[in-house]
Each structure stands twice: as structure tokens, then as C-alpha cells.
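Researcher: Re-running this chain for the archive, since the previous output was lost when a drive failed. Same request as before.
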Amino acid sequence: MKHVIALDVGGTGMKAALVAADGTLLHEARRATGRDRGPDAVVESILAFAGELRAYGETHLGQSALAAGVAVPGIVDADRGIAVYAANLGWRDVPLRELLSRRLHGVPVALGHDVRTGGLAEGRIGAGKGADRFLFVPLGTGIAGAIGIDGSIEAGAHGYAGEIGHIVVRPDGPDCGCGQRGCLETLASAAAVTRAWAEASGDPAADAADCAKAVESGDPKAVAVWHDAIDALAAGLVTALTLLDPRTLIIGGGLAEAGETLFTPLRAAVEERVTFQKLPVIVPAALGDTAGCLGAGLLAWDLLATDPFATDTEVTA
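Model: Regenerated C-alpha cells:
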């Protein structure tokens, strides 16, 4: 059966699948990245994992994968196939496309940014399906965004489009790793809520999920932390709405798992702030932590569809 390899590389783990042309997941697997052994070990873990997936396809599906797609964190130059920078993996200028293609006997490889790749999946087969314009914003350790236009993701002139987490919403706010102060992700990410709730509750082990539960039980300290994060998030989102005018706003990541504890006050806070802007539909992401992997599969199939020579590139080992 015809299929492609899809890999979603995170800070500590990798999700992978063999994906049919209609999006069916024919095989799924997970591995650790090996980050504790250094950046070179992470690259070798990815290559070895991809090799295992290729072998699985040959044994169980009757043929090798036609292509591969891989989603990675950090700064990505998709055109050149290079992972430019990923702090949590210790990477700088890793030619991942070339390395993967070589390990996979010459098949074509598509490289994408993890959030934009996840947004591609949410837009085509997830919560944004059917929307001509959408914005996908996952609220995790940080905050990023994917701008969807007619089933494709806008990467920008330099590959940095959608970095909503670095919109400054409170100029006197906390320092951000990007060099600014008061960036959205320092105030409204899952990591930011975790820090604020650990301090407010006096429990250093408390996290954002614990804060959400405390909000549901009416804890006033938790409500204050939660509303402060939602206020910042709404401010950042309205800036994005003003610039992009999306029809659908998809919120994912760890904080979205709080359900209506997040979405009810967030919708209200956004509505309070808009003036001339048109309100988008604000919905939770549908694909969960499989979005990046599914999106990597879509990248691989897109590559085959747009490159007339792609299926002829496989060479012998």
C-alpha cells in the first residue's frame, strides 16, 4: 500500500506514523529523542527511527515509503531543508532534509515548523476544515501560531510568520527569552500559568492543569491567576485578528484541555475588546497531540503532488 513517513519531533519525544494518501494512519509509534545525550544523538535518533519506519512499511505494507515529512521545533528553513535553530534540542543549522533522505535511500523529504505543520493538519482535516482563513494558536510551553489560507500555511518571507507569542501585550511585563518584555507567551502560555499558580498557591509542584481545577472549584487565587492570563491572551489575539481577519480561531495546546473553563471567559474577553473587527469563531483544536504528525504526513503527500520527479528519486542503498 502506498504511504509516506510522518515524524513530529518534540523536545523530549517523537511521534511518528505511516500515512496513506487519504490520511489514514497505517502505523503509529513513539520514541524518546535522546536529548540527554546531546544534539548529535537527537539527529541520530531521528534517522534511526525513520529507518525503522521504512523497514516496517516494507515488511507490513509491501513497499517502501514514497516520501517523508518531518516537523521540528525552533527556526526552520523549509526551502533549504535546514533546522536553523532549536534551543531545546541544541541544534544549529542541521541539514535534516538531506540527512533523512540519505537514510531513507533517497526518497524526497519535506521539513516543516512544528506549529505550522500542526496548523496545516487542523486546517485541512481538523477544527479548521472548510475555513478559508484561520489562525491556529497552541498554548503550551510557549505560544506560536499558524496562519491558514485556503488549506495552506503562510510561512512569511523569512519563515517567521505567526509568532504571536512575541507580540508585546504588557511592555512592563516579564522578560522574555526573545529579548523583549511582556510578550504574550510570558503571560498566557501553559508555562506562564504554571509559574504564576505555583507562586500564588505556595505549591512549587502545582501546574496549569491544577490551576484550572482550582478555578472550577472557585478558588479566588486561582481565578485571579486564570483571568490575568486570559486578559493577556485576549489582548494578543485581538491584535492578531486586527492584522489577519481570520474566519476561525483555533486554540490548542495544554491550556485548551481546560475546555470551557478557558473558552467561555476567553470568548467574552475577546468580544469585549473588538471594535471594528469581525469576531471569528473561536474553537478548540480537534487533533490533539497528533496534529504535528498528521501535518508532517500532509507535507510529504504535498511534496509528491507538486514534484513531478519525486517518486523517481529513490536509489539503492
